[in-house]
Amino acid sequence: MYGLIALIRNLLLLVVVITVLRSVIGLVMKFLGGALSGSSGGSRPGPGAKTSPAVPLSGDLHRDPVCGTFVASTTAFQRQQGGERFYYCSEACRSQHILAAR
Q: Where are the domains of the chain?
């Protein structure tokens, strides 16, 4: 009986230790990620650097008819067909929807 109690106690202790270690590692990685990305505020991407397009913070959301992702009405991937406007998350979804409509 004592062996079973000791096993349960050790398993609970292991869960606590793993949780604490994951938290510490996450904080260290967040700190290193910020330090390595040059978050000093004065750095700018050099010429030819790839930057992601600005994501609108407001506006209407529409469901992509192919994959079901919700996208903003300002997306570049949209088309009008028969009085209805379709919004897509990517060029691949738009192409797939056009092919399926034929």
A: 1-36, 61-101
